[in-house]
Structure prediction request, 213 residues.
Amino acid sequence: MAGGSVSECKEHLFKVLVIGELGVGKTSLIKRYVHQLFSQHYRATIGVDFALKVINWDSKTLVRLQLWDIAGQERFGNMTRVYYKEAVGAFVVFDVTRASTFEAVTKWKHDLDSKVKLANGNPIPSVLLANKCDQKKETSTSTSLMDNFCRETGFLDWFDTSAKDNVNVDEAARFLVENILANDKGLPYEETNGDRIKLHQEAVPAESKSGCC
Prediction:
């Protein structure tokens, strides 16, 4: 049985969007998750940046998570349809210290659902991240209100996160990947010697890539 395990290994490439208002910490969350790094001084993302996280999911499954860090002002442009193309999951991020960023979540979710869907026509799985929880004051996020909000808007779930203190970053990502894998029955996969990444990189013109992590 051990002898055939290598040839049976499935390698998936999943395109995951990270969206939300300017300054909510999207880039910081990605840097923490992919590189275990945190800085207070990331420059604002222009257009879209990329990062790749390789996950040995189990003994027979390797997941390559292609994270698309989309600039906060992009919701008002026409490029999001191009950026969203072929995504199979998304994080929508808001800053718990700025109410306006939470108020914008519904607009981001609507934009997402209107521009990309799974092959079966359903919305792509999305998770809401209440970021910068390390800066919370005494008025903490109400669990029941957030649960209700997620049900009403179609989020799978929500997580309090902190890129600075590394709170729930890995947990939120694992939860989303679990749901992507559950939806993946109809998606193509390939053996470990493939290079399916080319199919996904065609979605965005080269000039719009501001840099790969």
Remarks:
- The longest strand covers residues 10-20.
- DSSP finds seven helices and eight strands in the chain.
